[in-house]
Amino acid sequence: MSIQVSGLYSYPVKSLRGHAQEVTRVTSWGPDRDRRWLVVDEAGQFITQRQLPKMSRIGAEYRGEGIYLWHLDYANAEIYVPVASAQTSCKVMVWADSCAALDAGDEAASWLSSLLGKPLRLCYMPEQTHRQVDMQFAQQGDRVSFADGFPFLLCNAASLRLFSAGLGREMDILRFRPNIVISGAEAFAEDNWQRIRIGDIEFDLVKPCARCAIPTVNLVDASREADVFMMLRKLRQRGDEVYFGQNMIHRGQGNIRLGDEVKIVS
């Protein structure tokens, strides 16, 4: 049985909801426009579902030359933020990285702050910002947006099924926030891959993805489910970390599509 791409996902705003795609355009950034927007606190520190699980209830997608946000639980709680509204230069922190960004203005800040219950700002990473991927795993010039550390995250549908079986209920793959989901491989076969090819693009699998509390967030009601992390520890603990999925760096540009064959290069 061949291995194929069975899911493609984009996350326009870091830690807000993602959405499925039929085609992902791969640019120098990685997935086109993925996590180019970021929610920060008043000090410019990045905020995610780790601190605010309720972020999982806000949808985000690109529409035209801007981004549309909406809250799944409140009728008419929506806002459109043009990219052009992000004009004020600022510095934001993502882990240890200080990144040049553009603040998207008071209207977007007020909308997010009122829904999430604390003072927040929405920021955009412009084209001229270059955030280098950790050189321990990357080449000079490899860039990443506001994603935690790498342009792509790969997950295996069989790995998720095995995890769900151990947990006793079906898990939504979006809890793990992959960009690419593959089917047709054995569970956790991805642990042993170093390079794959999808279409005309090759990807280096550079680091297993260490997981935090985000997969414990129930995407339906934003509650935390402690047994999810307990099962991760049982199945996937290696030293002090638990791992699920593989971080990847792309070695080319173009389009990848649902149904594309995944070839194991090494």
UniProtKB/TrEMBL annotation:
SUPFAM superfamilies: MOSC N-terminal domain-like, PK beta-barrel domain-like. This is MOSC domain-containing protein. PANTHER family: MITOCHONDRIAL AMIDOXIME REDUCING COMPONENT 1, MOLYBDOPTERIN COFACTOR SULFURASE MOSC. It comes from Zhongshania guokunii. InterPro entries: MoCF_Sase_C, MOCOS_middle, Pyrv_Knase-like_insert_dom_sf. Residues 102-265 form the MOSC domain.
